[in-house]
Amino acid sequence: MKLRVTSTFFIAFFLLKIASAQEPVQKALTDGKKYTFENCINKFDINKSLKTSVGYQYWFIGKNFLEDNLTVKMSVVGSKQATHAPHKHAGDEIFFVLQGTAQFYLDGKITTGGVNTSFYCPSNVEHGISNADTTELKYLVIRKYLD
Questions:
Q1: Phi-psi region of 94 (alpha: psi -120 to 50; beta: other; left: phi over 0)
Q2: Is the Cβ–Cβ distance between 13 and 20 less than 8 Å?
Q3: Environment class of residue 121 by beta-carbon count within 10 Å: exposed (0-12), middle (13-18) or buried (19+)?
Q4: What is the pTM of this model?
Q5: What architecture does CATH give domain 2-144?
Q6: What's the CA gap between 144 and 20, in Å, rounded?
Q7: What is the pLDDT of residue 75?
Q8: Which residues pair with 56 in a beta bridge?
Q9: Going by C-beta distance under 8 Å and a sequence separation of 6 or more, which residues neighbour residue 99?
Q10: Alpha carbon distance, N-terminus to C-terminus of the chain
Q11: Label partner for 80 (CA 20 to 30 A): which of 10, 68, 115, 131?
Q12: Residue ranges of domains in the chain
């Protein structure tokens, strides 16, 4: 139960920080986008997930929802696999482990982390995440797309 409370707290805190940023919401409202109670809540639905070659992904906040393209996605990866090889791109990215053990790669260094571990990847620095265990890895990806 403690794990669920901690993960839920982190997610709720992050989403509240996004919601409390008044300027993007006001700009989006003036651009014709209307935020409602219903479209601000996204309950996980496995039927709306995107299958990948190693598991699946579920977008809680997609690229076009917030005015500044900040996103929240959950990735689920099978045993000893990775969604993709280490790479780099413009824009910061944060991974937050919900379940399992992840192997983190950042600029030539490798370590592992379990539940409630975050991994920050600075813009244009090579990084990657993979499943270091024989059980399922589940993590959030928090990223602001610049394109």
A1: beta
A2: no
A3: buried
A4: 0.79
A5: Sandwich (2.60)
A6: 17
A7: 98
A8: 51, 76
A9: 115, 135, 136, 137, 138, 139
A10: 39
A11: 10
A12: 2-144
- Across the strands, what pairs with 50? 57
CB 131 within 8 A of CB 95: no
Using an 8 Å Cβ cutoff, are 102 and 113 in contact?
Answer: yes
pLDDT digits (tens, 9 = 90+) for 74-116: 999 999 999 999 999 999 999 999 999 999 999 999 999 999 9
* Stated length of the chain: 147
Tell me: the pLDDT tens digits for 5-53? 455 445 544 544 444 444 444 444 445 667 888 889 999 999 999 999 9
The neighbour count for residue 32, using CB atoms within 10 Å, is 6
**One-letter amino acid for residue 95 of the chain:** F
